[in-house]
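Researcher: Next entry in the queue.
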Amino acid sequence: MKKIVAAMLGLFACIAFGQPKGPSNFFKTLKIEATIVVKKHPMGSDLVELTILGTKFPADGVQEKLDALAKELGDQPRGVQTSIVDGQFVKSSFAINGIIQTNPLRFNLVALARAMAFGQYPIKSFSVLFDGCSPGGKTVAAFDPVDGSWKFEGVATRSPLAIEYRVQVNADKPEAITLPDENTRPKASAPEQKNPAQFYIWAGIIVGALAIGLLVYSALLRPRPRGR
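Model: Structure for this entry, 228 residues:
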């Protein structure tokens, strides 16, 4: 029962994109530690550019994030290029599969949050920009569960065409980062079974009506006797 209630609360906290609206106070004031830009390549891979802000993040911390993301997505980063600008930021670009799903458009924010927010060098708040993406009917816009494990909010823009999310993680372990999907939605109730007796009654009425109609039609086609 507790699992069902938790799933329902998560569904109510998960909001899809609707009418265009401006960013909330959470989106505007969240102090981010890193930015992630993801773009779908025509050949299918996701091109990722990870920028970690600040002066204290080590180079081996970047590799930790890449390894964690590979574990979550089940795919190894390819063409990794990492550069360090002392006192400013660390940047890493690579290609990987499994972040952007098309038809319908969905984003694997769970994998990104689990990869970024844990380990020896946790990054608990970050932004994700999905370049060239426009939200669809099932694209999640915001999530704020009652347990406070993590939350995010997305804002779509037309020029440039993109969807940007701001993500904050408060959980202590990756397993706490979840997002309800269609598999957790309550199944539709089975259609009401009609009484078999009612079925036969209505079937008899229909058959009788058809029989009467045929008799009338036959009578109309039958030649009338000529008058003398």
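Model: Residues 1-12, 182-196, 198-203, 209-222 have pLDDT under 50 and may be disordered.
Researcher: Noted, moving on.
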